Every structure is written in C-alpha cells, then in structure tokens.
Amino acid sequence: AQTVTQSQPEMSVQEAETVTLSCTYDTSESDYYLFWYKQPPSRQMILVIRQEAYKQQNATENRFSVNFQKAAKSFSLKISDSQLGDAAMYFCAYSNYGGATNKLIFGTGTLLAVQP
Amino acid sequence: SQTIHQWPATLVQPVGSPLSLECTVEGTSNPNLYWYRQAAGRGLQLLFYSVGIGQISSEVPQNLSASRPQDRQFILSSKKLLLSDSGFYLCAWSVQTGYTFGSGTRLTVV
Known about the structure:
The complex is a heterodimer. In chain A, 0% of the residues lie in helices and 52% in strands. Chain A is built from no helices and 12 strands.
C-alpha cells in the first residue's frame, strides 16, 4: 500500500524568506501523481501544485516549486518570498496514475507559521 | 464551471442521533466522489469513494455509510452517531487527476 510521510509537524519562516517542507512517499508504481495542498484556517483544501511522476522537470507555480526526487521518493515544497497569507497547514498527497479510483493518500501535514 | 456544494457547514448532534451530510457536484459528469474525515490536528482519512451511481467502496470499517443515488450526489449517513464520529468531513470529486474539495462540514457529537 502507498504511504505518505511528512516528518515536520510544524515549521516557521520569516516573511519574505524561503522555506522548504519535506515529504517522502512509498509506492511500487512507476506512474503516479504527487500534490501539495494548502489548508488555511477556513479548512478549505486548496491545490498548491501538482507533479506527474513521468515528468522529470520540477513543477512550479509562481512562488511555489517542488524538488521531485523519484529515486529517493522525495517530494519537497519550496515557498519563496513567504507571505503572511502562506500561513496554513500543508499536506502532501499521492495518487496512482490511471485506474478507476485515483484515491488521494495524504500525509499528516505540516503547520507553517509566517512571522512578520 | 465545475463546482462542489457541501452542507451543512456546521452540525452539532447528540450521541445516538442520525446523520446525513450531502454533497453535490455541478459542471461535470460521472465524477469519482470521495468522503474524507479529518480529526483535529490530523491528516485526511479516506472513508468512502464512488466511481458511479450505487457503487460505494468503504476504506475503513466504521459507524458510517455512504450512498450515491444520483450521478452528482454523494451522501454520508449514520443511523446512530458516536462521540468518535466528531470531526471535519470533506467531500471531493475527481474526473482525471484534478481533485476539487467541498468547503467541509464540522461535526460535533455531544
């Protein structure tokens, strides 16, 4: 069974600085998707970034980028120029590629605080 | 556009009472639908998923059940709530690999 591990329960960053959130996963599949979701205090789940495993290029979305290391099964999220609005819980998630269900498997989350 | 509606937003129910949470999707056909639960300070646990009308798969044995009476409707139910059913419940749908989540229901069983 696939698993997702986030080893940092809490992180803190100064406004305008850069922070990296860690995520590792375990799977025997060769094709899959990885995601980072943001959950602010409203608890709405917001997709931050998505990575297809068959793509070697790391995904980027404005200030958010990932470091995808397929062999190491590592998928870290880098937030550049951190803003107060980035403060939230961040979840790493995995989904198989194709198939009928595409279930999302989540890590336990990292609570990010942004200090002014 | 594709949207997902989930209600109610907040619910306080006594132990032993029934439960019905509803989720509807607009702007898509034959989506995969999911119910997740998030306990306080924890990650999301998949409870049920559905790939079509009347097709329900359970991930975790529990006091809850799910039904999909229509293509775009997904219902989470319980006949008798337990204290341990308290949590934040999220409905989600996916067509390919894009997931969209509802705004969630905060359930408190007292």
